[in-house]
Structures are given as C-alpha cells and as structure tokens.
C-alpha cells in the first residue's frame, strides 16, 4: 500500500570504484526551476513584443475587477510553455507554480501568495481550466457566454504575423521570396474538417504555410479534402498587399512545389507583378521534349560513372488548363538508379536567371522551408489539434506559430555570429532554455542563480548582450 507522505530522504547505490560513497537525495533544495533560460525569451519579448502584439488581436469581455489573469498573461504563459517544451494544457497544472516563468510573464506577485482564493495561493500562474476556457472562447459567443468571454480577431492575427516579419527589416529589402507549402497534420479522432487523404494515407488536416526564410507569415489550418493550392491566391493577395503597403518598390517572388502550379495562382502572379518559380509535375509531353537531353545525360554517366545533369529550355502550355505559354526548365539527370527528369515553370526570363541557376539556386532552396515546418510540428507541437472544432484547432496552431516566431527571433537576434546561429528550435531549447536555477525573491529583486555546472555560460552571456543591443519594436 502506497503511503501518503513524501519521503524526506532518498538513498541510491553508490557509483564508482568500490561504490563506497553513497548517494543521498531529498526535496529540500528550495525554490528551483529547470527553465532558467526563459530569461532569454523574456528579453526577446521585451524588444520585439511578439506576445503583446498577438494579445492585441484578442478582445476581453470579462469584468476587469473579477479577473486575476489578463489575456496577455494567459497567452504568454501558453506560448512560453510551448517554447519550453510543455505541449499540453495539463502541463500547466504543475508549471503554474514556477516563480521565474511568472516573473518573465510580468506577474506582480511571482510567488502567488496574494491570490484571492486560498486554494490558489502559491500558484501565481493560470491552471489548465483557465487556459482551456481561453481556447473554448473561440467557439462561443463571448458577449453572452458566462465563462467564455474572450474572442479573437482572425484578420488581426493574419496581419500580426506579417507585421512582425516586416519589422525585422531596418531598411527596405530589394527582394522578398515567399515559400508556400502544404503538409499533413494527422488526427486521431472525429475532429471537424478531418478527411482521409490518399497521398498521406491517413485522416488529417492540410495546413498551408507561408515562410520567407526563417520568418513565418501564415499558418492556415484547412480541411484535407481539397487541392493543396486552395486558398493560396487569397493568402497571396493579403500578404503581398500588406508587404507593398510597407515596401512599395520591393521585388516579390513566389516559390512552391508542383502542387501549386495552377493556372489561377500563376495568372494572379503575372497580373500583379509577382515572379514565380513552381515545380511542375512531369507528363508524357514534357518527357518527350526532354528525351534527347536525357539520352545525352545517360551517355555521359556511362562514361564518367557519376551523376550527370543537363538543362533544357522549353516553351510549354497545357492542352486545356493554362491560358498561355510559359517558360519551363527541364532538368535531364541520370543517376545510378536511372533517369530522373524534373521540371519547373517560371515567370522569370532567361535574362533574369539562367536555367541551371533557376533550378539549383532558386527552386531547390525552397527545401529549407520543410525544415521550418518540421521545427514547428515536431519541436513546437503544431500537431496538437485534438479539439473537436476547427476554430479551436486553428488557435492552437497559432499558439505554436507564435512560439516559433519567438524562438526564431531569439535565433535571428541573439544567436547571430555564434555557433548556434542556425540551430533548430529543439537544440535552442535544450542548450539555452533548459537550465537549472535557484530562485530567491526579495522585496525589490528576483535573484536567479543559474547552475554553476551549466556548460554554455559564455555563450549565454554573449546572447544576452546581443539581445540587449537590439532596438525595441513599436507596440
């Protein structure tokens, strides 16, 4: 039978030669945290105000005198939690006692000793039920529901992601390259909007992402019974329009795989002065046009026994779906496994970019976007879309997206010039955020004693110096 008391002392077998030295542990270490590096996230937030600007997209209909957790505090807790590796609402039932997280979020009472209810004292942060009501508000009528009285302005959130991206430029760029991609988000219940997708072989959502380098501009949750390009024109109209409001003269290119090589999107780009470079699915006509080049690549391979590739310029139009002829570049490649023809369609002229450069340096560079999507799905839990309603799952996807933006800003501003300048989110979390620390709170200060055994002390100090040199963004 399990006892109710907590053991005061834990004894372990000794290690080392002879095992003479016993190992004894207890729970008397004082106020500790395993997330001492959250201080860096707080510095990023102070200068870029990512969460604060995200919170401005919400409207709070609650009675101000009756609440203890403001919308910005709730969102900061949720977003910082994801960045720190706490993926679900249940995690916050334990996380809510962390005084350092409460301090970084902005709680005036990081110990929670002044909470109104006795059962909440010692817990400065919101619990899972309060955070759940925030998510549930998206599916309710905030003006009438008694408990769910917070609503989100979806259009404002869309603008928020693009604004954070635009504010990263100190001066107008010459060119912006936007990457589009769709991916699968498997679901395992009867969620609204989930369908079986034949390509991915599972029930899933089909979210649409738009990136520019490491910057996330759009994360749109969609049903999976659609074409991958559905809604792309509307997103481009919105994003390109917002970019040109800030930078009217900037050159904009669009890049995506063959799932987006659709007449509607290409025609929109041509009408609105947006260059594009899109993968093009191969077919019998295209392969016949590339046949001679493929034979030549095979002859060269037989001679060199190394992969050989040639490029062929084509002027191509489909029999029915395209409204005009367009430039297509064919890659005639022969590998050890045989022929590997590939095609891209583009609005960029030969004078602007050669065939080899178009494929190798422009089109293939879009592969880095897939790494950014994997970061968000694997490291920041963008696939936690287990709520029944799509609106709630969209909000969860936005939470993950804001957490990604926060870490991407830490990488861009704090890690520049360091060995972790290109580190992925999970590496940043493990090396910079997961640091043991002791917390001591006095009347005027919060003392954070980071672990003396932390191996990256100089790097941590350098990152902090980089962040503190950054000029703050407008709220």
Summarize the structure.
By secondary structure, the protein is an alpha+beta fold.
Question: Can you tag this structure with a few keywords?
Answer:
alpha+beta, 16 helices, 19 strands, single chain, three-stranded antiparallel beta sheet, 475 residues, nine-stranded mixed beta sheet
Which word captures the global form? globular
The termini sit apart by 57 Å
Portion in helices: 25-40%
Give a count of the beta strands, DSSP E runs of length 2 or more: 19
Structural Rg: 26 Å
Poorly predicted spans: none
Q: What structural class do helix, strand and pairing data support?
A: alpha+beta
Largest β-sheet summary: 9 strands, mixed
Contiguous helical run count: 16
Average pLDDT figure: 93
How large a portion of the residues is in β-strands, by DSSP E? 15-25%
Kindly describe this structure:
With 475 residues, the protein is an alpha+beta fold. The chain is 37% helix and 19% strand. The chain has a domain of 173 residues. The strands form five sheets. Strands 6, 10, 11, 12, 13, 14, 15, 16 and 17 form a nine-stranded mixed sheet that branches. The chain has a three-stranded antiparallel sheet with strand order 3-18-19, covered by helices on one side. A three-stranded antiparallel sheet has the order 7-9-8, with no helix packed on it. 38% of the residues are buried.
